[in-house]
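so the lab meeting is tmrw and i was supposed to have these ready like two days ago... anyway. pasting both below. for each one the top line is the aa sequence and the line under it is the structure tokens. i havent really looked at them closely yet so no promises
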Amino acid sequence: MNQKKIGSFLKELRKEKGITQEEFAENLNVSGRTVSRWETGVNMPDISLLVDIAEFFNVSIPEIINGERKSEIMEKEVKEVAEAMSNYAGAEKSVILKRVKLISIIGLISLVIGLVMEAINYDSMIPIYECMKGTCLGLGVGALATMVLYTTGILEKIKNRKSKQMKIVAIFGSGIIAICIIVSLILTIIEFLS
């Protein structure tokens, strides 16, 4: 216990109430000098008086012993927690926004390149051209699908699932991608050989 802090708190409470040390002392049946010693931190109020002091100033006994109002402490803690949550949400939002921008840019560039390649319709026997066009269009559509999953929150729900379920989804998704690549390569080879 910090006697000076308690004394300052009692003095603050008395002044808030707009009474003198003598008036406060009279209410508790003690001398004005006793109240003065409490407020300077020289002495502490007797334990038996704490209940009367708490009732008189409409504060709790722990507030008197701590030398400060709980509500001020709680308001400060609540404010600090709210600020920390706000900072965290801002940082999280910034990270998500950067990811969304990156995916959007990659998808848009890929889609534009793929559509330009489709519009040119370069009729050649070069299978790499068709493979590049398909890859660009696939990246564009994939980015669009990822953006839909990201913005609707489905991707976050999938991410928060248990690790076993995540492994199944990852294996399934990787399998589909591998099958698409293999089929694309086979079709490209068949077209080249025809």
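ok protien two:
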Amino acid sequence: MRAEVATSNVLVSELDARIQLARQEQLTGILSIKSDIHRWRLYFLVGQLVWASTHTHEKRRWHRQLLRHRPDFLRYGLSAYPDWTYNRLARLVVCKKFNREVFSDIVAGCISEVLFDLLQQQETWDFQKVQPGLTYRIKPQKACEFPFINLQNIRLWSQVKHEWQEWQQAGLTQVSPNHALVIKDLASLEDLASPKLFKLLTVLADGNQTLRDLALKNNQPLMPFVLSILPHLRNQSLRLKPVGDTITTAINPTDNDIAVKLAQAIIPKDARIVYVDDSPANSRKMGTIVAAAGYRYTNIADPIEVLKQLLKLQPKMIFLQLTMPVVNGYELCSQIRRMADFKETPIVMVGHGNSVTERMRAKMVGASEFLSQPIKPKNVLKTLIMLDMI
């Protein structure tokens, strides 16, 4: 282990020297770095590191940074991949159609991930054999032909070195942030994990989301999140696996698609979801789930008051219990659809049955979807996703 760390530190020092030299000589151009199987490119503008690239998880990297800093781009159809490139975003900045500070945050985030992965790549080598090391090549460019934007002296390299040192000290050198998390032993995980972590992982640990993706979804820095799951990796209730660069989604979401859509969630903080049901127990369950997804929640227990309350609340979505006293859900749904304010509002019928006849009748009166009881978080989240609420 000491030999591995020593060799790693030698390589960090070597890379550090190359970056410092580029800074001192005010390099405008590309520092190309190669191992036997990987290649990285560091781009410098008058000695300032302004971009970094590698083919490993390039699309996911863009997706994460846009999600963190400009999630509306993903929400409204401007997909993070395959179309997003540095040059495309830089052109928007030059044309003053994109905020320069946000641009710097996105680019800095991408650079940091590439540099971290470059340092960790050394840990995957077999230190018992003679190491090929890294080869370096500098390709100068004319500044007028170099389409990169200065990042106002952000000290990325120093930050990444510090992050890597902390990663090593925490004993995480063999844990790749680019690996996906899979639940191997659900019962063991439920017994040992906190309720909050268990709930998160049962929704998101689908074998497609990387540790970086999961940390972002959980609104945590990477290392605290990894440390929180480390005991469960060691007891083998969780495991890591390599994963490709593409996150796929389907028209009808499966359990594996939930993580993808949740990771793209942009929830209007003033949006409200209403559940029409006279059962306090059902209302509490639904309220907990909806509030956790980031929405405001209102229960309407009296079906006679529904139409008046809806006009007042103007919800973004309505859950409607099928069986209630005085008036049933089918009748209420038909009445709501006749109101101009709610002709396009998603309405989900909630009932104990799940027959084709019930679903067809719900569709005939204008329901958007049918949710079977008992109310469960995963099923409610699937419904929200299906109706593009998340």
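from a quick look at the 2nd one: The radius of gyration is 26 Å. The longest strand covers residues 39-45. will dig more after coffe
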